[in-house]
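ok new one. same drill as before - structure tokens go in, u give me an amino acid for every spot. 165 of them this time. try not to just spam alanines like last time pls lmao
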């Protein structure tokens, strides 16, 4: 059985006991979380969130790139969030390679250089501050007064604040 088949079986069991059909797209708590896609991060459990409580935006590295900002803008302007929590983490896979070398590797293998950037990084606290600054400086975000940045320590499960509003 493939992993996808296992996931589908899990979903069938989840759907049998599903009780959240009344939830709306507007989150109960007016907050959006931008974090990494790392499998060790469970934003809902880490932050004590239930289904429907918050928007969670995830990408490789928790990078405040154009796509993440697009999601944050929709979250604020159309779905009522007012706060943004940026969470990067220790031992991130994005710290294990150089962006240019990865792009060259992909181009050598496929014949096409990616149009997107991976935005790999080296200094976690500085990268949190950079992500928070990028969110705060977006002209499209309506609420930038409550943007805070944290490092999640995968070794301990703790959040450490690095940048606040």
């Amino acid at each position: 059985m493939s992993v996808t088949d296992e996931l589908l079986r899990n979903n069938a069991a989840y759907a049998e006991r599903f009780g959240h059909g009344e939830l709306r797209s507007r989150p109960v708590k007016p907050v959006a979380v931008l974090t990494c896609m790392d499998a060790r991060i469970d934003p809902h459990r880490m932050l004590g969130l239930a289904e429907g409580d918050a928007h969670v935006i995830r990408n490789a590295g928790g990078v405040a790139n154009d796509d993440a900002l697009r999601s944050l803008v929709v979250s604020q302007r159309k779905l009522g969030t007012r706060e943004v929590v940026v969470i990067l983490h220790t031992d991130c896979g994005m710290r294990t390679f150089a962006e240019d070398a990865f792009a060259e590797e992909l181009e050598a293998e496929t014949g096409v250089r990616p149009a997107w950037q991976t935005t790999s990084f080296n200094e976690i606290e500085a990268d949190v501050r950079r992500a928070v600054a990028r969110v705060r400086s977006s002209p499209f975000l309506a609420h930038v007064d409550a943007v805070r940045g944290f490092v999640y320590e995968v070794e301990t499960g703790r959040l450490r604040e690095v940048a606040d509003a």
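The two ends are 48 Å apart (CA to CA). and btw The chain has a mean pLDDT of 91.
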